[in-house]
Amino acid sequence: MDLALQVPAPVAERARIGLRAEGSLDPRGRPEKEDGLVFFAVRRRPSSALVDRCRGVVVERVLDRRTDRAESPYDRLVERLSLPPSLEHQLPWKWELLGDVLLLKLPLELMPWEEEIAQAYAKELGAQAVVAESFGITGPFREPHFRRIWGTQTETIHKENDILYKLDVLKVMFSSGNQEERLRMAALATDQEVVVDLFAGIGYFTIPLAKYGHPSRVIACEVNDVAVRYLRENLRLNRVRNVEVLAGDFRNVAPEGVADRVLFGYLHGRELLPHAFACFRGRGILHYHEATPSALLPEGPIAFLHETAANAGYECRILRFHDLKSYAPGVRHVVIDAEVIPRRPQ
């Protein structure tokens, strides 16, 4: 007979997390359901506090234990690594795989084992290098702060929605959390438009829009020299020819009075937004990104957009407000699509 924790089904997830956290969950055992109850295999008796909190009972039961490899990558990693049981719950449940480079967030408690952990994750997920996040993305050049903890080659080609993005993850940013917005750019009907992307990076939004939206021209501005190099290479990789790359601060290089659509993909650029309106040649569409405290949504960024448009001589009609994702605790990454209309005919 095996030792198991029996809990009511509605609190099963809470019980599973608690068992992992205290290191008593047996990853070889499959949770079993019966008559509104869930049974978890345990390798030792769980704490009485956890049992009480989950309205559970420790019972003896014949359980189906895996004799082959565990079912999920996470469970296989738990089995592969020789960590103290009390630290197993600290292993990352989520990761980001860009091409064949793996991005992990490791807590301080796991630092003594970071190379062993990185190698195990790489083997399990097919990565050639593993990097750990230090401080995220910072500064006007949007530079990543990662440490390489295993492997040597951090330049890779990441494929997403049939688009190839070549990059070095230690040198330029790439946010998997923006995949939804990159996909939306590919679906925009921009036939014969002139589009200006003021923060093009390596082509996150420029390439899907230029490849699938059929604009007459995309003008891509980028201040980071490394990103510019990858942007040009990614345009070649994806056989995109209707993009003009302008290297430098968009305030100095972006053309005025040409755009039907402007992409403003910098989250901390409120003071720069007035310059975006100079790119329009008349009525057009603005895609504005901002990192905003949750308490100010949605009125805060919308009011700012109206005020900035008015000061630039435009009216602003909100077409879409989208709360894209979490940026930081209490802060959201939002995207506003707005039609901008000159107050006087041009």
Write the layout of secondary structure elements.
Elements: E1 2-8, H1 12-21, E2 32-34, E3 37-41, H2 48-53, E4 57-61, H3 73-80, E5 96-98, E6 101-104, H4 114-125, E7 129-138, E8 143-151, E9 155-160, E10 163-168, H5 179-187, E11 194-197, H6 206-212, E12 217-222, H7 225-237, E13 243-247, H8 250-253, E14 259-264, H9 273-277, E15 280-293, H10 299-311, E16 314-328, E17 331-342
Helix pairs in contact: 3-4, 5-6
What is the compact description of this entry?
The protein is of the alpha/beta class and 346 residues long.
Would you give an account of this structure?
The protein is of the alpha/beta class and 346 residues long. It folds into 3 domains: 2-61, Alpha-Beta Plaits (2-Layer Sandwich), CATH 3.30.70; 73-153, GMP Synthetase, Chain A, domain 3, CATH 3.30.300; 173-342, Vaccinia Virus protein VP39 (Rossmann fold), CATH 3.40.50. 25% of the residues lie in helices and 35% in strands. The protein has 10 helices and 17 strands. It has helices spanning 12-21, 48-53, 73-80, 114-125, 179-187, 206-212, 225-237, 250-253, 273-277, 299-311; strands at residues 2-8, 32-34, 37-41, 57-61, 96-98, 101-104, 129-138, 143-151, 155-160, 163-168, 194-197, 217-222, 243-247, 259-264, 280-293, 314-328, 331-342. Strands 13-12-11-14-15-17-16 form a 7-stranded mixed sheet, with helices on both faces. Strands 2-3-1-4 form a 4-stranded antiparallel sheet, with helices on one face. Strands 5-6-7-8 form a 4-stranded mixed sheet. A hairpin with a 4-residue loop joins strand 7 and strand 8 (143-151). The longest helix is centred in the last third of the chain and has 13 residues, at 225-237. It is elongated.
